[in-house]
Design goal:
With 737 residues, the protein is of the alpha/beta class. It has 34 helices and 22 strands. GO terms for molecular function: pyridoxal phosphate binding.
Length: 737
């Protein structure tokens, strides 16, 4: 048996103790832990008696990078090929492969791994080691597996220059590229940490990235969240109340009424890292981006991959998930309606329920409260109804929507999406009332405490006030840019503008976050309908609700006056001045308005421009685009198209977010297309639209939902807080008791 030992006075975190650390974190949050960790971390080796195990395809540079990492850590370096296999077999690896063939080679290689043991070392695996399950399970017991993720095109080029023409698994009729693609599934199965490696990155740079990634993996205590209303002095006084990703997913809204944001900001990607994702699929891009935003102590990479695969694997009708389509001139549409409920909300809400179910403690039931202006409701209901049966028994959803403030098809869809753990309630008011009511319920500690004590049930939020809702939206904005590069529309680094129909500010905030993370977005264009409070604010710095009444429009998802996620952006440009944010929102609550300082307005206008669209112009845009291209825009996308036409300067491409499928707004679409016969039945309206052979076709998911019986069966509630609370208690009693 091979055994390499480097003795250390203390043992660093293993995978098992990483889970234990997370449990302790959840239960106690000791105030001194962070400081103790920093002291310990600065005085002991990064490795301890754990191994750093480098994994990746042949040509990834594992051996070279392993040597550099070992030198930096002053610890043993072991190359499985040179130091273990060839020593054991007394012949070269290539000779062994030629002697026994690929299948037997993998078995022989695995047997050697099972006899191998090391401690406190940097180990470079062979490219085929991960294909032997028992061997890899043995290695992971005392190691952190680092995946050197190099694009296949780069590996092919390197292997060609190294004159490597055969690797394990290759046979006549199977190309080298096919083998490399096939192996990816094994690499993805075993890694703890991924390090993106572009084509021209020096080994020294990759080694530093490996060390940084291992440090991050070992130290989750630095990835904490704060409230947008937390003062700087309050942060230093409340170190014992740190919140982590799992906490903010569960809690939704901060106790002080603010919104959670990462204390150290979002991760930055280098240009080379983004470029390494140009050839990647949407699911692969999502995995890479979200791994950097969610610490593995909260969700390990393997579990995150499972969640992403479940969310986007079969539930979307387009294999590209979020395709980019050329519309006309320099305008491109980012189609975000291929999910099961036909809106951009599906991108987050096919993922968030599984994230939520993983993060919450098993000892408590949870009721998820949602306020919707149209699309969120059906997306939340559909997403949570897809949970495993055991999770549905402990997680239920209650969706509040304005009874007369959504389209008939949206209402039918929300009612049709009701399941055994998911219900919709119409409220005789507008969206702003529904959203404000939920916020008040969350901050009513007497009421939430009563629910916990009396019924063993905690409340959670699935609106875009929940941080987990925003992360999947960052992915599709980044992916859209990478698609334009992949299609040779632009070279990487050239700027684009984005235009987004905006109500609650979550979608456009995700685009701003993508920009912060390194995507070359120049301007974010905020498109409003006749509820144009955001347009006025971006132009003047004055957020003024005095005298404004919500107007019902053809684009109900942006019929919003109080934009919740704007608070996160203001916190960002105010250099995380929670005291200022608190002052602004107290003034808005008490006086109905606030005004930004001049310097903050100038910062805001470096990122944002805004315009609004009338109802007439919205319908005219739908008609014009259909007449010239045969493509039907939904009403929200039409709002963005009108504003983009007015504000773009045509010096770069502009990506218009197509946030919903036109099928959801059939009466308005039929009116825009000047079709005289408009039937009242939503299903009949969709059949009528379908008869025109439109592009894209009528959404299949909507058709299936509307065919269900009982699409008028839902409860209606007065705009009264006590009535809403009564409905909540009734649901808890019926589902959990």
């Amino acid at each position: 048996m091979f055994h390499v030992v480097q003795y250390r006075p203390l043992r660093l975190i293993t995978q098992t103790s990483l889970s234990s650390m997370y449990l302790k974190r959840m239960l106690s949050r000791p105030v001194a832990f962070a400081q103790i960790w920093k002291t310990w971390f600065s005085s002991h080796s990064l490795v301890g008696n754990k191994n750093i195990i480098l994994m990746g395809p042949p040509g990834a540079g594992k051996t070279t990078i392993g040597r550099i990492v070992g030198q930096k850590l002053d610890c043993p370096v072991i190359d499985i090929d040179d130091d273990v296999l060839e020593t054991t077999w007394n012949m070269s690896v290539s000779e062994k492969l030629q002697d026994v063939g690929s299948e037997q080679f993998l078995e022989e290689e695995g047997k050697v791994l099972l006899k191998f043991s090391a401690s406190g070392s940097v180990i470079s695996l062979t490219g085929s080691n991960p294909m032997h399950a028992a061997g890899m399970q043995h290695m992971k017991k005392n190691g952190i597996v680092v995946y050197l993720d190099v694009p296949t095109t780069v590996i092919m080029s390197r292997l060609k220059s190294m004159k490597v023409d055969r690797i394990v698994g290759q046979s006549p009729g199977i190309s080298l590229k096919d083998i490399l693609q096939f192996r990816k599934q094994f690499y993805k199965r075993w890694y703890d940490i991924r390090v993106l490696c572009g084509g021209n990155v020096a080994a020294e740079v990759v080694a530093e990235k490996v060390l940084d990634a291992v440090k991050r993996y070992q130290n989750s205590e630095l990835e904490t969240f704060i409230s947008t209303r937390c003062s700087r002095s309050g942060r230093s006084m409340e170190k014992d109340s740190h919140k982590y990703f799992s906490d903010v997913v569960t809690e939704g809204l901060a106790p002080d009424g603010g919104l959670f944001v990462p204390e150290r900001g979002l991760p930055k990607f280098t240009a080379g890292e983004w470029q390494s994702l140009i050839e990647a699929t949407y699911i692969e891009r999502a995995q890479v981006i979200l791994e950097r935003c969610i610490h593995p102590a909260d969700i390990p990479a393997s579990k995150l991959a499972e969640i992403i695969g479940t969310a986007y694997g079969e539930n979307f009708t387009c294999s590209k998930i979020a395709p980019v389509r050329h519309l006309a001139g320099n305008q491109f549409l980012l189609e975000l309606f291929h999910g099961p409920t036909a809106s951009f909300k599906d991108f987050a809400l096919q993922m968030v329920p599984h994230i939520f179910a993983y993060c919450i403690p098993r000892s408590c039931n949870y009721l998820v409260l949602v306020a919707t202006s149209g699309d969120t409701g059906s997306a939340v209901l559909d997403g949570f109804s897809r949970l495993h049966d055991t999770d549905k028994q402990r997680i239920a959803v209650m969706n509040f929507f304005p009874e007369d403030g959504v389209s008939p098809i949206q209402k039918s869809q929300m009612i049709g999406c009701q399941k055994e753990n998911a219900w919709s309630i119409g409220v005789k008011s507008d969206f702003d009332f529904c959203q404000t009511a939920i916020k008040q319920i969350f901050t009513n500690s007497d009421y939430t405490g009563f629910l916990t004590v009396e019924y063993g049930t905690a409340l959670a939020a699935a609106n875009s006030i929940n941080w987990a809702r925003l992360l999947p939206q960052i992915v599709y904005h980044a992916s859209a840019y990478l698609d334009l590069v992949h299609q040779d529309i632009i070279p990487f680094g050239s700027p684009v503008d984005v235009c987004i129909p905006t109500g609650n500010f979550g979608n456009i905030l995700a685009a701003l976050y993508a920009k912060m993370m390194g995507i070359p977005i120049r301007k974010c264009i905020c498109a409003s309908n006749e509820n144009n409070v955001l347009t006025d604010f971006i132009k003047t710095g004055v957020y003024d609700l005095r005298g404004r009444k919500l107007i019902s429009t053809f684009s109900p998802a942006v019929d919003i006056l109080k934009s919740s996620n704007l608070e996160r952006y203001l916190h960002l440009i105010a250099n995380e001045d929670g005291q200022l944010v608190t002052q602004l929102y107290n003034q808005l609550e008490n006086q109905g308005h606030f005004q930004l300082r001049k310097d903050l307005l100038e910062k805001l206008q470096q990122d944002l421009v805004a315009g609004w669209c009338s109802e007439e112009d919205c319908l005219a845009a739908i008609h014009s685009v259909y007449s010239t291209t045969g493509y039907i825009l939904d009403t929200h996308t039409a709002v963005a198209k009108v504003v983009a036409d007015r504000l773009q300067d045509r010096t770069c491409p502009i990506i218009i977010s197509s946030t919903a499928h036109y099928s959801k707004f059939a009466p308005a679409i039929l009116r825009a297309l000047r079709i005289a016969e408009i039937k009242q039945n939503p299903l009949s309206q969709l059949h009528l639209l379908s008869s025109y052979s439109p592009l894209p076709p009528v959404h299949w998911g909507l058709l299936e939902t509307l065919k269900k019986k009982g699409n008028d069966d839902h409860q209606v509630c007065a705009a009264d807080m006590s009535m809403l609370m009564s409905h909540i208690e009734t649901l808890i009693q019926n589902h959990f008791m």
